[in-house]
Amino acid sequence: MAPTATADVDRPTPSPSLGLSLPDNAAARLAKAGIDPKAYPTRPQKPEYLDQVYAIRSEPREHIDPGSRADRSKRALLSAATKVVHLTAHIGTELHGLQLAQLSDQQKDELALLIAERSVVFLRDQDLSPQAQRALGAYFGAVEVHPQVPQVPGVPGVTVMWPDLQIKEGGKPASFRQPGGAARWHTDLVHEAQPAGVTHLHNDTVPQTGGDTLWSSGYSAYDKLSPDFRKFLDGKRAVYRSAHRYVDRDDPAAGPKFVEREHPLVRVHPATGWKSLWVNRAMTVRIVGLDQAESDLILNYLYDVYERNVDIQVRFKWSPHASALWDNRITQHIASWDYEGNEPRHGTRVTSLAEKPFFDAEAPSRREALGLDN
Hints:
Blueprint: H1 24-32, H2 50-55, H3 75-80, E1 83-86, E2 93-96, H4 105-118, E3 120-123, H5 130-140, E4 142-143, E5 159-161, H6 163-168, E6 196-205, E7 213-217, H7 218-223, H8 227-233, E8 237-246, E9 257-264, E10 266-268, E11 275-277, E12 284-287, H9 292-308, E13 313-316, E14 322-327, E15 331-335, E16 346-353, H10 366-370
Parallel strand pairs: 2-3
Antiparallel strand pairs: 1-2, 3-14, 4-16, 5-16, 6-14, 6-16, 7-13, 7-15, 8-9, 8-12, 10-11
């Protein structure tokens, strides 16, 4: 009897995109940048063990925030814009008439300060290659190369944001009742020893209807609290966890575990010097020194302050080739999945890591610094 051929002898190698066709805008953008769509995207060698992930970026590194050296008037940046629109009183500014790829170093410093003051800044109609997006991210801080998610070939640290691909790779399909991970309030990379600073999401392809993103202000969330409650929280520390789980070599039977690190519950932004409430429902585990029941009660209230006060939030309606740059040290964000996957969406993201979070008891809140009444 002839031997039976193994099932994979003539099996074709799957394409990096798993047979998906890139949206037209995305394909044109990649082609202009000299990126071969047939090799798109690349995937990292995912770490399996907890100790491997703890070892990633575990060494301290100096971080000097570009916004801390900026001209406080931001004259070079704002005078070059054709229009500056503050979308709400507390958070969110849209700049018109500027190209991120063409900013001078002085303008980049001032953009960093504007992001630090306004929490998130938007620019539409950007002619921006993945390479230029990474270069801007590297100016703001060390670019995070994510160990779990697809990347743009040859441009490490530029993460591919393509919902259709995520589902094709085995992710749980989103639904109206269960829209998925990004459709809950969160802050990126809080488990890092030196967590995320500025994240820059550029969407070349977006739904015509729906698909907005919302941000909420940590400055204003802190200011919403009573003075005595602020005093209670000042100086407290919390445990923050990763989005993914990993096997503990020393205790594999326990099942996969999250990476966890302690950071201040209230932190101070180095460029503004203002205090920000730094919690999020997805990845804050507990307040150090409190019983779990006490911690849960307080944290759930703090999450609600972020999530339920619409006056400290901004909602952005995307358009093709728009960019959003936000500061994870002072915000939470959430994606609206109301388009239900019925239209294509594609973009790239770069996250710049910042300083080790710190607290300063003498630092003011935003409203105190600006002389605003509570």
